[in-house]
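Exercise 7. Given the components listed, write out the predicted structure of the assembled complex. Treat all entries as one system.
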Amino acid sequence: MAISTEPYKGTRDFYPKDMQLRNWMFGKLSSAARSFGYLEYGGPMIESFELYAAKSGEELVNQQLYHFVDRGDRKVAVRPEMTPTMARLVAARIHELPRPIRLFSIPNLWRYERPQKGRLREHWQLNVDVLGGDALLAETELLTLAVELMRSFGGGERIQVRVNHRKLMDSFFKDTLGLTAEQALKVVKAIDAKDKVDEAKFVGWLSEAGVREDQVATLKRFFGSSLDSIAKEMPCEGANHLLELFKGLSESGVADQVAFDPTIMRGLDYYTGTVFEIYDTSPENRRAMFGGGRYDNLVGMFGGKESLSGVGFGMGDVSLQNFLETHNLVPKFEGEIDVFVSLPKAELRGLSEKVARDLRAGGLNVMTPLQVSGFGAQLKIANKHEAKVAVLFGDSELEKGELILKVLTTGEQLQVKTADTVKTVMGILGSKNS
Amino acid sequence: MAISTEPYKGTRDFYPKDMQLRNWMFGKLSSAARSFGYLEYGGPMIESFELYAAKSGEELVNQQLYHFVDRGDRKVAVRPEMTPTMARLVAARIHELPRPIRLFSIPNLWRYERPQKGRLREHWQLNVDVLGGDALLAETELLTLAVELMRSFGGGERIQVRVNHRKLMDSFFKDTLGLTAEQALKVVKAIDAKDKVDEAKFVGWLSEAGVREDQVATLKRFFGSSLDSIAKEMPCEGANHLLELFKGLSESGVADQVAFDPTIMRGLDYYTGTVFEIYDTSPENRRAMFGGGRYDNLVGMFGGKESLSGVGFGMGDVSLQNFLETHNLVPKFEGEIDVFVSLPKAELRGLSEKVARDLRAGGLNVMTPLQVSGFGAQLKIANKHEAKVAVLFGDSELEKGELILKVLTTGEQLQVKTADTVKTVMGILGSKNS
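Answer.
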């Protein structure tokens, strides 16, 4: 029976055109991270199961993790997120890595999900983390990077970073609302999921959690308040931290793209302080595109004595690509073949190869047809491959030590001395690219 | 209990310095492939089990494949090689992809192996394939690319490509030696493994296969013969093909790095014609570094009507890195941080950020310390991160609208107008890099 040509459910194949887009996206993500001094790291695709069991949250481990037992009876997992790997690397060299530790990676990650828009089983994710340094300065930098990254794609004006602080919410739930820890947990879950349901359902969740009507009213008032008025009415560590954060963001030139939003929760994972999510401002796309926050001492699970906190975010390639396509921010890519060097006769192969070799030495991408054929057939191949310039050999030109260059995008044709080929082609491509 | 900081057995972590080396290697591999008109593709890390069961060989599937059943009861495998994925992609668009189809990829691959020098459970592998086109021209191109690729690392003189042809060996075993198909199979296996054992063991294998002494003598004489004399004494398709191949390699300027070697077999997988292996010429490294060959109609297993043959090779990152390190071909990499912008006082953060922003806009990698401290402490941070230039702010300079640039590699220090910072730093870095 024939084998299917479809990729495994929830995954993608990348043909050259898809790869060109992916390389462009990843190149810009890397450049943005590097421009802030972040260094790239990598880790294995398979890790021990226990690395995720410890901190990754029940839903992920019980329902979404790809795990199995290897031939040596080790329980292993295909990585569903990169943060545990990053924490492991940092913990292993905690005394050697210069602080602050700035790291980025663009790994592929696996989750067993029902494939739907924006969610696939295999996706790539930019992970950016900074460990050590002053918490406020580190968070300011990371949010600045998030905004600058979207600006580098031309999408800076079309996103908004929404920020909150876990400790502000703790104060509010406990001191202002008087909720029990258990109630607060339920309210957090309800708020976290509220974008996916309507108002009635949300209020229903609150009353199930035993939140009284007067408390719901206070909660709604709180959600409608500015950070300034909250800081005045209920001064606390979280509110003060956010005020300082906004001052820093203003110095960094990104304050216009960042807003306080007390509904931002980021699940219940390992976040302990500032949390944030990046939203598309267009109304069709109501879900957070990506997010992150501060985590305390993730390296602790490796048993070292030293505590080290960090802040990070993860941005998936699927939601980024959706955003870029929605806003027409993906450029039209040129063909990747610079020059096609023809082969009209077998006897000319030595010359043809010499020309191709010289062009390659000049840094150009050069293809040959891998078959002997006439002008017309050769040009057809060159055009199918979207080559930009074709090198053609004609008998009368060869007698004069010349060859023909045809600019395939314009149809323009010129004769050059064979020795001048590289220089002339570089000139043509240079003026095309400028 | 504390979780181990070790990576999973047979895998590697890539700290920034390791990643810098990997990015350099992969960058050069990609450039070489692109310079011959090969386009990058990618596929999922997990594929259906049946994709490998069909063609990948018993040892791989039964002993080395990572496979498991997913939550939806599908039998899946973590890819152990890239060729089946490439064949699947090609089969799915066989009428759309322009011919010849030139493809490359640098995937990570998984095999359950006992970790040893040159073999790990997770490794990366450059895969290069060309499908369609004249067989001889395609093979000539691929071998030329293999040589040029090693030349681009400065190792062109230190490798030798050894070439053989399956059909030449078939003629020899059947017509000249008079072996049965079963005997020939055993002899092929013995020859394939002969680099790993001594002469006595090899001859032992032959006699176990029922090869008579006079046949062993013929076999040894054959192995000592030149291609020219073989082609004269036993003219056949395989020998003629190789003679033509060498003519093409000479036109392509790589014949000096290629030799005929009748002991090259490339296992028993899917190769049907020309096969080759690339060897390090230094005597300490006797194993093949990488290899490949011609395969017939790999797309056939997907049930399409059209047949399409190809030729390809795979080169692992572990053996490449071993080779480069053995021959001192890995350069000393510079630090990745161009500029360190200091923060001596909290009030100066707005200016410090402005300077950092301008430098980033100029394409530079810029780090800030994430803590306020004096000159000495700041320079210590800058040096630990191997920054090349530090921007320092002194009170008397600030009054004049100036700042201090310190070239960290030389200790040289200069004062510049704040507005001239980017230009001056670019000048310093430019002259450093040239």
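Discussion: Chain A touches chain B through 98 residues (CB under 8 Å). The two ends of chain A are 53 Å apart (CA to CA).
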